[in-house]
Structures are given as structure tokens and as C-alpha cells.
Q: What sequence folds into this?
């Protein structure tokens, strides 16, 4: 597999949080420059604040407007472009400030000093972005293998049982056998898809229904499902193979160990700008509790995927509530980059 080419990444600066941090950081810089030397006065503080804030906000606005073109460039070209853009904004604002405010002789020296300070700060900020990008790429690279392992993991017992079901139905019920083959092929197709792909939630629910149909043929009346899914809003997307592994764990750890079987409940609802999915299954009891420990790995992998795609806007909680094990998934109904 070839290495992913390095590209320049500019974070989203045109939002309330980023602008607030930018204003606060700029004002802190003003205080540092004011204490570094020169006259201490409210007039100088006000003029420096006005100058620095103009440079910071105009630079942020220009970087927002040119964010996509700069990110299409290579790492070096994109970083140089962003650096030169900040220097150009500083030069323009400095020239306007010298024209508007008579600050005495030698304006060229003052502008040169301002450009030097802006260049040092811009270089430090761009270096910070670069380090953050490398860390993010490293985390994504490590997580990619974990995601792929999760998505490509179809239990051997499930595959063998499915093939046995197909073989037993070919002579007696060929239509059902054909349906099982189609359902199994769709599950394999999804497991071989690119890790981290987001799909319409209807597609993920369709995979869940296909998986349940196959398991119902194996477990018979031992497997009962209560499906509470309202009309889905268009545009709602979810990482591929997120719900299906949760259902698989509910069956494998909750229904299969019980000779009498049990009921799995799947409930989906909208909570303002979020989708909440709750899956509950019976708990086999203390004698079977060790088998449920394997559930933790799948939950940890799904949490990692959600963290990369949604940050802290998504969560996956799992807990025992009496004799029922409840897994609750919460994620934004409209995907946005972290």
C-alpha cells in the first residue's frame, strides 16, 4: 500500500469557538508586546490591540476563503502560501496604520519589525498545525487497521452455520436458500468496503435486517426482535457496520447462551440534532458472564471509529440494567468534519 501524500491542512477558523480563541490569543500577544518594552499607556494598548486584532481577523478571513485551494497544494507549497498570506495581510494593515496614524519618522523600520513578529508567530502556528496533522494521520493510520479488522470480521461459526442453512434449504426451500445467499453476499460486500465509510442509515438498517433473517433461520423462535424505528429523515448517515456488530454481540452474548432464547429490542429516535439508537438484550447470568467479556473489544473499536469521525459529539454507552444489557449509541444526524 502506497503512503498517503502529505498535504497542508488548515483548521476551520470561521466559527465562534475558533474566532473566540483567536481574539483571546491575539489580546494576550498584545499584553506581552506591551510589557516587552516601550511606553505603558492606555493609548498604546488600544492602538496595539486594534492593529493586532485587525491582522489576526483579516488573516483568519483570508485563510477561510482560501482554505480549500491551499489544502489542494502540497505540504510545503500550502504552508508557504499560508505564511505569505499572513505576511501580506500584516504589510497591508501596517501600511494603512502608518498612513492613518502619524507615529513619527522611520516608518519602514516599524513595518519591518511588525513583519518580523508576524512572520515568527505565523511560523510557530503553522508548525503547530503541522505537528497536529502528523499526530492525526498517525492516529488514523493506527485506527484504520482496527476499523478494517472490525469490518472484515465475520465470525467463522456464523459463516459455517449460514452455509449449512443454505445446504439444508436447497432441496426443500430453494427460494429461501437463494434469499440467504443474497443476504450473506451483502454482508460480505459491506465487510470488504472501505473502512470508515458513512452510508445512509437505511442501508445500515437493511444490513441488520439481513443479518437477523439469517440468524432467525438458525435460532428459530429462540430469537425474538422488537424493531422500533420511525420514519427516517433523509440525509441521516452512519459509519458502515456500526449497528450490525452491536446486534451481532447482542445475539452472540445474550440470546445464544440461553436455551429458551430471548428478545432483542432495537429502538431508534431523534433527539434534536442527534440520532439515538438503543439495543437491549437479556443477560445470560453469572455462569455465562465470562462469554460476554468479548463484547468489550467490539464496543472499544466502535467508540474509536466514532471518536475519529465525530469527536466528542458521539458516544456509545453500555451497561447492565437489571437482567438486561443496554447499549446506547448517540451521534449527529448530519455528519460534520471534526
A:
Amino acid at each position: 500500500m502506497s503512503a498517503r501524500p502529505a498535504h497542508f491542512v488548515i483548521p476551520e477558523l470561521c466559527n465562534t469557538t475558533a474566532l473566540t480563541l483567536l481574539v483571546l490569543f491575539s489580546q494576550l500577544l498584545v499584553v506581552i508586546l506591551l510589557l516587552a518594552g516601550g511606553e505603558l499607556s492606555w493609548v498604546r494598548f488600544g492602538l496595539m490591540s486594534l492593529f493586532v486584532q485587525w491582522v489576526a481577523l483579516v488573516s483568519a478571513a483570508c485563510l477561510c476563503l482560501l482554505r480549500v485551494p491551499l489544502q489542494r497544494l502540497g505540504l510545503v507549497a500550502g504552508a508557504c502560501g499560508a505564511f505569505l498570506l499572513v505576511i501580506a495581510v500584516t504589510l497591508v494593515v501596517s501600511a494603512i496604520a502608518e498612513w492613518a496614524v502619524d507615529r513619527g519618522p522611520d516608518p519602514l523600520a516599524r513595518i519591518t519589525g511588525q513583519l518580523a513578529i508576524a512572520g515568527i508567530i505565523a511560523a510557530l502556528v503553522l508548525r503547530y498545525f503541522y505537528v497536529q496533522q502528523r499526530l492525526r494521520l498517525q492516529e488514523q493510520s493506527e485506527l484504520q487497521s482496527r476499523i478494517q479488522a472490525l469490518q472484515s470480521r465475520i465470525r467463522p461459526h456464523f459463516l459455517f452455520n449460514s452455509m449449512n442453512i443454505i445446504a439444508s434449504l436447497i432441496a426443500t426451500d430453494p427460494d429461501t436458500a437463494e434469499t440467504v445467499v443474497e443476504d450473506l453476499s451483502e454482508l460480505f460486500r459491506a465487510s470488504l468496503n472501505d473502512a470508515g465509510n458513512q452510508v445512509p442509515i437505511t442501508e445500515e438498517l437493511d444490513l441488520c435486517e439481513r443479518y437477523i433473517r439469517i440468524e432467525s433461520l438458525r435460532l428459530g423462535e429462540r430469537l425474538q426482535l422488537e424493531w422500533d424505528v420511525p420514519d427516517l429523515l433523509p440525509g441521516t448517515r452512519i459509519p458502515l457496520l456500526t449497528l450490525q456488530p452491536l446486534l451481532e454481540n447482542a445475539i452472540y452474548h445474550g440470546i445464544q447462551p440461553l436455551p429458551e432464547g430471548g428478545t432483542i429490542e432495537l429502538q431508534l429516535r431523534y433527539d434534536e440534532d442527534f440520532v439515538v439508537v438503543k439495543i437491549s438484550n437479556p443477560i445470560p447470568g453469572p455462569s455465562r458472564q465470562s462469554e460476554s467479556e468479548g463484547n468489550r473489544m467490539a464496543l472499544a473499536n466502535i467508540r474509536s471509529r466514532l471518536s475519529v469521525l465525530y469527536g466528542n459529539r458521539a458516544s456509545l454507552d453500555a451497561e447492565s440494567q437489571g437482567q438486561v444489557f443496554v447499549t446506547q449509541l448517540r451521534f449527529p444526524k448530519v455528519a460534520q468534519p471534526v
